[in-house]
Amino acid sequence: MICDCADDDFEAILEVINDAAQAYRGVIPADRLHDPYMTAAELRREIAAGIAFSGADQAGQLAAVMGIQPVKDVTLIRHAYVRTARQNTGLGGDLLGHLLARTERPVLIGTWAAASWAIRFYEKHGFEVIEGVEKDRLLKHYWSIPDRQIETSVVLADERWRARGRTGE
Question: How far is CA 125 from CA 14, 23, 35, 47, 145, in A?
């Protein structure tokens, strides 16, 4: 069941993120991986910045989360995670479809360039990778992330972005 997360889901959201982020060990640059991957304070800041989470519940447990954040003239998909034990069960696709139906704006997604499984997932759902100078410009324009993260990330854009020929300016 897909639903909007509430305040009392905070700890479960944090647990899902940190469980799923174990996939990054040995994949993303070591200087970008922390333990825990996301702290409670960081999650509170993300929510305060306007990220609204939806979740997939299985057997009474939050099994996956994904956030949506309106920024300027686009919508960003943020913090998409499925518990390790529940990956490859369709929950991520269900959540993505749920969030895409909630916006008419072009959608952008940022992820680690080395997270090939995540890139394949988004490509399977109609997103295309934007790299190089354009990727850097988009990350600086729509995200508030450190330069090191910009260096090691990619952006994916949906058909709405591509059809409008947007450049983010």
Answer: 25, 21, 30, 25, 25
Domain residue spans of the chain: 2-164
CATH value of 2-164 in 3.40.225.10, 3.40.630.30, 3.30.1490.110, 3.40.710.10: 3.40.630.30
**Residues in contact with 115: Cβ distance below 8 Å, sequence separation at least 6, in sequence order:** 23, 24, 27, 28
DSSP conformation letters of 98-124: HHHTT--S-EEEEEETT-HHHHHHHHH
Tokens 């410009």 sit on residue? 137
Give residue 19's identity as a one-letter amino acid code. D
SS3 33: coil
- pLDDT per residue rounded down to tens, the chain (169 residues): 999 999 999 999 999 999 999 998 888 888 888 889 999 999 999 999 999 999 999 888 999 999 999 999 999 999 999 999 999 999 999 999 999 999 999 999 999 999 999 999 999 999 999 989 999 999 999 999 999 999 999 999 999 998 887 554 4
With residues binned 3-state (H G I as helix, E B as strand, rest as coil), the percentages for the chain, rounded to 5, are 45, 25, 30
